[in-house]
Amino acid sequence: MNEYQFTPQAANDFEIWCYIARDNIEAANRVEASILKACDLLAAAPLAGHIRNDLSDLPVRFWPVRPYSNYLVFYDPQGQPTKIVRILRGARNIPILLARQEP
Predict the structure, then answer these.
(1) CB–CB of 5/84 below 8 Å?
(2) How many domains does the chain have?
């Protein structure tokens, strides 16, 4: 079984659930389940995502959460387990947020 690990920042990004749940708990649960499914996929196929040098100099790839492609999983495919670096809404200032990323 392939595994993944959340950075502290990625674990905090699950505030997404709280934000959505204010209006609709069931929708928040669906988005969270899709994020976790995306993380499972990336652990099994770590090179599935895309490199975006325009967003970060970090050695990370990104993957849109399906069917909620406005959420992106940023991850480091190097090593085991796959490291989930951030989970962000695409409308946020991603270069700034990734620049603040702790090692």
Answers:
(1) yes
(2) 1
Q: Residue 19 is part of a domain; what is its CATH number?
A: 3.30.2310.20
Question: pLDDT tens per residue, the chain (103 residues)?
Answer: 579 999 999 999 999 999 999 999 999 999 999 999 999 999 999 999 999 888 888 889 999 999 999 999 999 999 889 999 999 998 888 888 888 776 5
Phi-psi region of 79 (alpha: psi -120 to 50; beta: other; left: phi over 0): left
Which residue type is seen at 66?
R
Residues of the domain holding 14: 4-99
Within 10 angstroms of residue 43's Cβ, the number of other Cβ atoms is 20
Q: For residue 42, give the nearest of 6, 95, 8 by alpha carbon.
A: 6
Q: How far apart are CA 28 and CA 1, in angstroms?
A: 27
